[in-house]
């Protein structure tokens, strides 16, 4: 990965600036909904002009993301095109998933407690609650490494395991999740953590439990999650959104 200077980069267009403000909101929603892990975790947005990926900068937590200045534009080979601050080592997670999935525009990666714990189990995530139904028919588990996704090869392998799913469990590491929109991706991350928490709670009882049959998940998902409801959920979380956490360092320091 080379790090070219962003000096002289054109100003961010108004529409893109609004999208990056929404992406900052998504980061802070994830922070509030159990995805906080110090300065780890990131969301990215496909650049609308096809230049690459806008990725949360390294060195700040999800709850500290404020505005477009907290994102860095890189091309699909990891070269910086605009923005200040360090790059997350796992930038290939974002570029390779977006490269493999032209149907989605937003990628998230985080380490929520329950989903990360669930990733260590050798059992399938089942639709014991509606949150798991929202995720779709399957949530695969990535086993190639428990380490960082810090090379294009590992990013491509993760994208292959993800396939056409909404999210993937990363063994002993965390999760990745995707969406056509910022709202869809953010909410998928929220739903996955809640779904894992519910199944872990049932497993802890040691009692038998039932789940929505796999053959019924698609039909049930169509009943309980349409675009209108997705927008309603997004608005709900945005109404409860806390302001960015104050940080003492200069806003654009790495």
Task: List key phrases describing it.
globular; disordered C terminus; 254 residues; disordered N terminus; 41% helix; 8 helices; L-fuculose-1-phosphate Aldolase; 8 strands; alpha+beta
Rg from Cα: 18 Å
Under CATH at level 1, the class stands as: Alpha Beta
The CATH architecture can be named as: 3-Layer(aba) Sandwich
What portion of residues belong to β-strands?
Answer: 5-15%
Helix content: 40-55%
The counted number of beta strands is 8
Overall SS class: alpha+beta
H/E element order: HEEEEHEHHEHEEHHH
Question: How many domains would you count in the coordinates?
Answer: 1
CATH superfamily: Class II aldolase/adducin N-terminal domain
Describe this structure in words.
It is a single chain. With 254 residues, the protein is of the alpha+beta class. It has a single domain, classed as L-fuculose-1-phosphate Aldolase (3-Layer(aba) Sandwich). Helices cover 41% and strands 13% of the residues. It has an 8-stranded mixed beta sheet with strand order 4-3-2-1-5-8-7-6, with helices on both faces. Helix 1 runs parallel beside helix 6, helix 2 packs across helix 5 and helix 3 crosses helix 6. The longest helix is centred in the last third of the chain and has 24 residues. The radius of gyration is 18 Å and the shape is globular. It starts with 13 loop residues before the first helix and ends in a 15-residue tail after the last helix. The N terminus and C terminus are likely disordered.
């Amino acid at each position: 990965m080379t790090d070219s200077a962003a000096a002289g980069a054109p100003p961010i267009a108004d529409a893109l600036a609004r999208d990056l403000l929404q992406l900052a909101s998504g980061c802070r929603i994830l922070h509030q909904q159990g995805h906080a892990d110090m300065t780890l975790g990131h969301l990215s947005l496909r650049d609308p002009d096809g230049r690459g990926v806008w990725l949360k900068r390294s060195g700040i937590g999800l709850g500290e993301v404020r505005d477009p200045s907290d994102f860095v534009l890189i091309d699909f080979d990891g070269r910086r095109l605009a923005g200040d601050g360090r790059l997350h080592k796992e930038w290939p997670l974002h570029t390779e998933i977006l490269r493999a999935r032209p149907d989605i525009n937003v990628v998230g990666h985080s380490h929520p407690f329950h989903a990360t714990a669930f990733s260590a189990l050798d059992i399938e995530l089942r639709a014991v609650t509606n949150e798991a139904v929202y995720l779709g028919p399957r949530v695969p588990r990535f086993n190639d490494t428990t380490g960082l996704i810090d090379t294009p090869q590992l990013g491509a392998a993760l994208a292959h395991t993800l396939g056409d799913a909404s999210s993937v469990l990363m063994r002993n590491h965390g999760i990745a999740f995707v969406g056509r929109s910022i709202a869809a991706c953010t909410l998928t991350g929220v739903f996955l953590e809640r779904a894992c928490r519910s199944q872990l709670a049932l497993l802890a009882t040691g009692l038998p439990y039932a789940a929505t049959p796999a053959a019924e998940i698609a039909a049930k998902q169509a009943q309980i999650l349409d675009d209108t409801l997705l927008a309603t959920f997004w608005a709900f979380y945005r109404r409860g959104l806390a302001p960015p956490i104050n940080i003492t360092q200069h806003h654009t320091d790495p």
